[in-house]
Design brief:
The structure holds 2 protein chains of 2 kinds.
Chain A: H1 2-27, E1 69-73, H2 77-87, H3 91-94, E2 100-105, H4 121-133, E3 138-142, H5 149-156, H6 158-164, E4 168-170, E5 177-181, E6 190-194, E7 203-213, E8 217-219, H7 240-250, E9 255-264, E10 277-286, H8 289-300, H9 310-317, E11 330-334
Parallel strand pairs in A: 1-11, 2-3, 2-7, 3-4, 7-9
Antiparallel strand pairs in A: 1-10, 5-6, 7-8, 9-10
Chain B: H1 15-20, H2 35-60, H3 70-74, H4 76-85, E1 94-95, E2 130-131, E3 135-138, H5 142-146, H6 150-154, E4 160-167, E5 173-180, H7 184-194, E6 202-204, E7 207-212, E8 215-220, E9 223-229, H8 234-250, H9 258-266, E10 275-277, E11 290-294, E12 301-306, H10 310-325, E13 328-333, E14 336-341, E15 347-353, E16 356-363, H11 366-381, H12 385-393
Antiparallel strand pairs in B: 2-4, 3-4, 4-5, 5-9, 6-7, 7-8, 8-9, 10-11, 11-12, 12-16, 13-14, 14-15, 15-16
The chains are: A alpha/beta, B alpha+beta.
Chain lengths: 336, 407
């Protein structure tokens, strides 16, 4: 009987051990060792290897001598853009012969250009021409709009202007997105990214309009990188300032152009009424997105004195720019 | 074929216990095997190995759709057209777009195939204009159309958006957005919130509207409409006028909201000044279903909200008092307690008026604030019990996204 009891207890122990083990692996929270818990089904998906952008992004060597902000005012957009870029070192500081350049405008909405919800197509065209004149082997224009990409690019006029100026326009398709790894990012450490236009690119330039924004109060060059994200990016609006700070970390451009030719000063980001748009007659070029955006906040949105949106501080804390543009070297030029 | 097995089971156990406690579970008692069994076993084994191999192979070659941009995939037919279009065969290059789209005559909307028109009138176009495809959006996919602005409507009872582009002569367009916001309060609230302060709206026959250069904004019944012209040419303005008349003729004005009767009819304030806030009014978590209107000075704000019964109204009024006190200090005037804002030097006060709470907020002049509050209180007390009961129910709740969209 002792032998039977011993055998019984051994078998009972085995069954109990197996049950406890099975219970643990199935019920333990997903982060625990050996846990098989997969509440959202993501764990069952194959793990794609993420891509990474270059270590220092697409930035050129910083300069202690040149101005950080080039501000051009006037009416001739080509001359203004050249003057603004010249102020920060000239286009040849940034673009070399043979470069493959990606220009990222904001074409988020299906709105005609005068409504100010998208980058001015004439500014995009001027930028493409400037890069071409500097010897760029190829200039690409790409964005992942909110609405139908084809409709947004056509209605905004960016498509026609960019092509006529000598660039190739990339519209997003589902297969153009790859997982991008952004170490240190809060929300987009691994996130689908509009990758296809980046293949082989050596320089990246953002060109963004100056817009009021319903959630983050202002959408300018830093928020513009949102248009490179795929996936359920709308969920980021729950922490809009956090995601914009992540965007500054994700993409460090060669330089940015703040398109203040028109200013959507209210009812943003979609706008709709010409009464919400005023002439800005200003273009800003900078290697510091935060400085350019802070200038836009003070000078173009005319919100000087109001506290900057929270994303400025969040991005500045990570060393991604200097929102205190008045402390930087600024060169302002009147064109014409 | 099979041989009889001889089991060496422990003694002293009954038959059922012997089955459970087999002391030699891995011993094979059969002396020979059925060839059929062996073949069947081999087939099953082969099947399992094949299955395992297929799982391993699929793991190494996943469906690209798993990595596709869900937003683009959700864009339905338009996104598929983009994929299929790819590169233009000649002329200027556009990666990912059909050649025809270079002309600008692309289908708009982006998120939906042709659907029912909802409250959209059957005939919208002026002579020489034509409609493109109608598309509709609900709370789940509104972000596809107006990401960034979606929350504005979701917080105002949003139910659906019907969208259509009208195409006119010389490539001019008018984008028509018709929002079903579930109640007249929400429609008027959205209308008032988007109206520039310097713009004067017109109100007649249950319609409030104004034209801001190239765009028509209109609230009628539960609907709020925006018609956005590509420019402010005479053709666009004529089309906007056609749209206004079409909306007036086709959309039910519905019953006049009690808040309009209160603020517009009884107090003489323009209906387009009414603001309805479903939750968290004035940043007070307890303030729900609040309707407010600003007086002519542009600063003094009158507000009213139903509390349900008199006791609740008194308690809620006291909460407003505490809320105002967090920004200032108490002052007494003509036997009434007011709160003076320590930063703005404006005055606020709330009182219970039967089952409602009424109040004034941000009054730069205490005497004028008191006068306005007295008028509002008197008007509320003159409301019929039926209206008060209906008001207490509040407008229908907003359609909330259930997941995936706005987590």
């Amino acid at each position: 009987m002792n032998e039977n009891r011993r055998r019984f207890l051994k078998q009972l122990g085995t069954v109990a051990g197996i049950s406890l083990g099975a219970g643990y692996v199935s019920l333990a929270p997903s982060g625990w060792p050996l846990s098989l818990s997969d509440p959202d089904g993501e764990g069952g998906k194959p793990r794609e290897k993420g891509l990474r952008l270059p270590e220092n992004g697409f930035a050129v060597d910083p300069s202690n001598v040149l101005p950080l902000l080039g501000v051009a005012r006037g009416a001739d957009l080509d001359a203004m853009l050249k003057a603004a870029v010249d102020a920060i070192g000239g286009i040849r500081r940034f673009i070399r012969t043979g470069d493959v350049v990606l220009v990222k405008p904001n074409v988020a909405f299906e709105r005609s250009a005068p409504l100010g919800a998208t980058s001015n197509p004439d500014v995009v065209a001027a930028l493409v021409r400037l890069c071409r004149e500097a010897g760029a082997a190829e200039v690409r224009v790409a964005d992942n709009p909110i609405e139908s990409p084809a409709a947004c690019f056509a209605r905004s006029g960016v498509q026609r202007a960019a092509i006529d100026a000598g660039s190739e326009v990339y519209l997003p398709t589902p297969s153009d997105f790859r997982l991008l790894e952004t170490p240190g990012a809060t929300h987009i450490a691994r996130w689908p990214f509009f990758w296809r236009p980046f293949a082989g690119v050596t320089k990246v330039i953002g060109v963004a309009p100056v817009k009021d924004h319903n959630l983050c109060r202002a959408s300018m060059t830093t928020k513009n990188w949102y248009g490179l994200l795929g996936g359920r990016r709308n969920q980021f609006h729950q922490d809009i300032h956090g995601i914009i700070a992540d965007l500054a970390l994700m993409l460090r451009p060669t330089f940015v152009v703040l398109d203040g030719s028109r200013v959507l000063w209210r009812s943003g980001p979609t706008g709709g009424s010409l009464a919400d748009v005023r002439e800005g007659r200003t273009l800003v070029a900078s290697t510091d997105s935060l400085a350019a955006d802070a200038f836009g906040w003070d000078d173009l949105l005319e919100r000087k004195g109001e506290p900057l949106p929270a994303y400025f501080a969040k991005a500045a804390e990570r060393g991604l720019g200097n929102p205190d543009w008045k402390l930087t070297n600024v060169r302002e030029i009147q064109v014409g | 074929m099979g041989a009889a097995s001889v089991r060496n089971a422990p003694t002293g156990l009954d038959a059922s216990e012997r089955r459970v406690l087999n002391p030699r579970p891995f011993r094979v008692f059969r002396k020979s095997y059925s060839v059929t069994e062996a073949k069947a076993g081999a087939v099953v084994l082969l099947g399992l190995v094949s299955l395992a191999a297929w799982v391993v192979w699929r793991g190494a070659h996943p469906d690209p759709g798993l990595f596709a941009d869900p937003a683009a995939t959700a864009a339905g037919s338009v996104a598929i057209a983009d994929v299929e279009g790819r590169r233009a065969p000649d002329g200027p290059s556009v990666a990912g777009a059909p050649r025809a789209e270079l002309s600008g005559t692309v289908p708009s909307g982006g998120a939906a195939t042709a659907v029912d028109r909802g409250a959209l009138p059957a005939s919208l176009s002026a002579p020489g204009w034509k409609e493109r495809t109608v598309s509709r959006f609900d709370a789940e996919n509104l972000y596809v159309k107006i990401n960034g602005r979606a929350d504005f409507f979701l917080s105002r009872g949003f139910r659906s958006l019907t969208f259509v582009t009208l195409e006119g002569p010389s490539g001019t367009t008018v984008d028509v957005e018709l929002y079903d916001l579930g109640s007249a309060e929400n429609a008027l609230g959205a209308f008032a919130a988007e109206k520039p302060p310097e713009t004067k709206a017109s109100s007649s026959g249950g319609t409030s509207w104004y034209v801001a250069r190239n765009a028509l904004f209109l609230a009628r019944g539960e609907s709020y409409a925006r018609a956005i012209g590509s420019d402010e040419s005479p053709a666009v303005l004529a089309q906007l006028e056609v749209l206004r008349k079409a909306f007036e003729g086709a959309i039910a004005a519905g019953e006049k909201p009690w808040t309009v009767a209160l603020f517009a009819d009884a107090l003489g304030l323009p209906p387009d000044r009414l603001q309805y806030t479903a939750e968290n009014a004035f940043s007070f978590g307890f303030a729900r279903n609040v309707t407010s209107a600003t007086l002519d000075d542009g600063e003094t704000e009158l507000f009213v909200l139903p509390a349900g019964d008199e006791a609740k109204a008194k308690a809620l009024s006291a909460k407003f008092g505490e809320g105002f006190l967090s920004y200032g200090e108490k002052v007494e005037a003509a036997g009434a307690s007011w709160v003076k804002d320590r930063y703005l030097s404006t005055f606020s006060r709330s009182v219970a008026a039967e089952t409602m709470v009424v109040g004034v907020r941000g009054a730069p002049d205490l005497a004028k604030g008191a006068e306005a509050l007295a008028k509002l209180e008197k008007a509320v007390l003159a409301l019929s019990p039926d209206v008060a009961k209906k008001a207490a129910a509040g407008p229908p709740a907003a359609a909330k996204p259930t997941g995936g969209g706005y987590e």
